[in-house]
Fold this protein.
Amino acid sequence: MAEMEKRTPWSPVDDSPLATVREFLPSAYVLSDGPVRYLLFAGERDDRTWGSIGAFWRTIDGSKGGFFVCPEAIWAGSEMVRNLRSAQSRGWPIERIYAYWQAHVGVAGKLMIDPQQHADTLFQVARRVGAI
């Protein structure tokens, strides 16, 4: 128990299923990356209302990508982060993962995915979903 008390809420060794989204915010340098493409995801949020759960993004050159989680949808957003990391661990490049989700624009199971949009910086995407 003493070990648990020493951990910070954002500890990467946290055993919580939501640990994947409890990381420090990206640096201002990372948030200035751009231009980027992104897909907005909507679904059931933590309070059981329907709304934004986050955005899957990638840089135009395809070298970087990720998923910003909406604070009101930690559970669903965490699942998307887990999905992304699982695909990467199986060797899928970010471009292929993005293309997969882009092919499912519209209703995809319990999700609604908006058509691709563009932003000048990653900061604009994070702000759009309330991640910062």
